[in-house]
């Protein structure tokens, strides 16, 4: 019996589709150069993809055909040697579709395996964002902002080849740097990309994450119904009634919170979240009307509180709010939980004002979607400079 290697690529649907496909395909081609058969594929359950919704691609490689066949009989691996995350905001967890809830980013990483991530963050901060694991695992950071090379754009900022060089370093049994550089030359005909792969290979450092590090929250779990428990035919339950909101200061009830799907909270879709400055709100209702996911809870005094379990981070509310800096989108990595901003404001307005100022002071690049024509072209030289420095 030979050895099976499994790599997963966790990416944002549509926006990073080509990036994930390029990486998984090149992994298989590089292993093939060393006589190992393999297959790359997207997760069936993620199709059709939707904008920003987390999705996965896999590369499975074996030392021989029989082992590959045996490994593929399961279709999807339950453990991977290397997990690649191409957007660090996915570190909070992955929720692809409506049936299995939020799952840890590191769920499939084997004990001692490696999680590679593209990020400008510190490894310690990233480790805290991910869920805790029982056994230690390694974190390898490929320095850079998330690359969005999707259906409509291919932002050739070398993220793909830098990740491939990193894989050659953290799992040299899968393929060598020389093999992956050969594939890069075959596929992209670009010596500069082969050099970027080598730089990433030579400079990557790993950080070991201990079982004491990370988010201690228990991930969502479920039990599949037995056939005897299934209902006859198809019955889709309607959305239950919403509820009133309780004021945390005077205990009075009022306003309205819509009931929402308990297993598809959508916040894993988000790369940014709205920060609402309630003192600036003129109660025009536009955010509430325009939010495509009906995320705003109406507070007893008629303010609008973005429900952060439900918000997908599209930024429509920021765009439509008529009051300057009343709603500001801020990078998701700046927040540790999804608690209500309105409750925090009600409890201590001065502290909340300070918090808002702090959070909106630094507005890094909006990480998905572009804001003006040619934005990606402008970003490529910046990323290539980061790649050059390693
Ligand atoms: S960013 Fe704003 S408009 Fe978009 S889902 Fe969140 S609350 Fe709604
Ligand atoms: S759009 Fe802005 S001003 Fe209008 S209700 Fe929403 S937060 Fe208030």
Structural features, described:
There is one protein chain. It is built from 11 helices and 13 strands. The chain has 390 residues and is α/β, with parallel strands linked by helices. The strands form 4 sheets. The protein has a 7-stranded mixed sheet with strand order 2-3-1-4-5-6-7, sandwiched between helices. β11 and β12 form a beta hairpin. α5 (177-188) packs antiparallel against α6. One iron/sulfur cluster binds at residues 274, 291, 293, 295, 306, 311-317.
Q: What's a concise summary of this model?
A:
The chain is of the alpha/beta class and 390 residues long. The chain has helices at 17-33, 65-72, 123-129, 159-170, 177-188, 191-203, 286-290, 316-320, 341-347, 349-361, 375-389; strands at 4-12, 38-42, 54-62, 80-85, 109-119, 137-143, 206-209, 243-246, 253-257, 272-276, 296-298, 304-306, 327-331. Helices cover 29% and strands 19% of the residues.
